């Protein structure tokens, strides 16, 4: 089944403890992206990747890192999480770099930073 | 910079009534436009997209949207609401000049009353 898989689905951590949220897609998509969703703010783009080894900042990249060493994986790293990073995170991918391609979304990761 | 405005964070309609969810964008060049739907505890899925082929776009589940360049709008409609349409709806844009960037509106929660 074609899908975007995020893990974990729920995560509770403490301030300053490094964590990684994994994202993997099995559709051979070139483009991948991370978003955070907060009530009343919609989805805001954190980072995106147009292809392997190519990443770029979205609108809210502060406090996050990403890497794209393989086409299928695009992990999101929080090296020193803070409470303001408590949010619902979504990974998404699309077939190509064309802007008219639809995004396929993962099921989300609910992160709580205490 | 592009932006997306969804008028009305909450819309309530009766079952069988017309659904109208509003989306306006700001961009010097018409971007690619999308509507996504999010059901509770799920990721987003594409309803429809505008890619300049036709101004009236038909999507899944009976939804459609009309692109109006003069009004910079892309409102979503459905002639007759069903209980299963209750969800959160997001309008999104991708600029022609940077296919990696995506901007989402704040979302509109649709409630359908029996």
Task: Tell me what you see in this structure.
- The complex is a heterodimer of chains A (114) and B (114).
- In chain A, strands 2, 4, 5, 6, 9, 10 and 11 form a seven-stranded mixed beta sheet that branches.
- In chain A, β4 (31-38) and β5 (42-51) form a beta hairpin.
- Helices cover 0% and strands 50% of the residues of chain A.
- By secondary structure, chain A is mostly beta strands.
- Chain B is mainly β and 114 residues long.
- Chain B has strands spanning 3-7, 10-14, 19-26, 32-38, 44-50, 56-58, 64-68, 73-78, 87-94, 103-104, 108-113.
- In chain B, a hairpin with a 5-residue loop joins β6 (56-58) and β7.
- The termini of chain B are far apart.
Give structural attributes.
heterodimer, A: about 110 residues, mainly beta, 7-stranded mixed sheet, 4-stranded antiparallel sheet, about 50% strand, globular, B: about 110 residues, 6-stranded mixed sheet, about 55% strand
What is the topology?
The complex is a heterodimer of chains A (114) and B (114).
Chain A: E1 4-7, E2 10-13, E3 19-25, E4 31-38, E5 42-51, E6 54-57, E7 65-66, E8 76-78, E9 87-94, E10 104-105, E11 109-113
Chain B: E1 3-7, E2 10-14, E3 19-26, E4 32-38, E5 44-50, E6 56-58, E7 64-68, E8 73-78, E9 87-94, E10 103-104, E11 108-113
Parallel strand pairs in B: 2-11
Antiparallel strand pairs in B: 1-3, 3-8, 4-5, 4-9, 6-7, 7-8, 9-10, 9-11
Q: Could you report the average pLDDT of chain A, rounded to the nearest whole number?
A: 94
C-alpha Rg of chain A (nearest Å): 13 Å
Q: Output the helix-strand order of chain A.
A: EEEEEEEEEEE
Contiguous runs where pLDDT drops below 50 for at least 5 residues of chain A: none
Would you summarize the structure shown here?
The complex is a heterodimer of chains A (114) and B (114). Chain A is mainly β and 114 residues long. Chain A has no helices and eleven strands.
């Amino acid at each position: 089944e074609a899908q975007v898989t995020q893990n974990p689905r729920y995560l509770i951590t403490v301030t300053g403890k490094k964590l990684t949220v994994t994202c993997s897609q099995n559709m051979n998509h070139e483009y991948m992206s991370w978003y955070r969703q907060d009530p009343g703010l919609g989805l805001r783009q954190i980072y995106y990747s147009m292809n392997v080894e190519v990443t770029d900042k979205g609108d809210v990249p502060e406090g996050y890192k990403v890497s794209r060493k393989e086409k299928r994986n695009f992990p999101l790293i929080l090296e020193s999480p803070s409470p303001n990073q408590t949010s619902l995170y979504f990974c998404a991918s699309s077939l190509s770099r064309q802007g008219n391609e639809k995004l396929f979304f993962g099921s989300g990761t609910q992160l709580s930073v205490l | 910079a592009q932006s997306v405005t969804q008028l009305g964070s909450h819309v309530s309609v009766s079952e069988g009534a017309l659904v109208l969810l509003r989306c306006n964008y700001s961009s010097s060049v018409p971007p690619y436009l999308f509507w996504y739907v999010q059901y509770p505890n799920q990721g987003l899925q594409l309803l429809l997209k505008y890619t300049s082929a036709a101004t009236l776009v038909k999507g899944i589940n009976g939804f459609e949207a009309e692109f109006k360049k003069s009004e910079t709008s892309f409102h979503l409609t459905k002639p007759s609401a069903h209980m299963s349409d209750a969800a959160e709806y997001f309008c999104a844009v991708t600029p022609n000049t940077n296919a990696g960037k995506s901007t989402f509106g704040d979302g509109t929660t649709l409630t359908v009353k029996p």
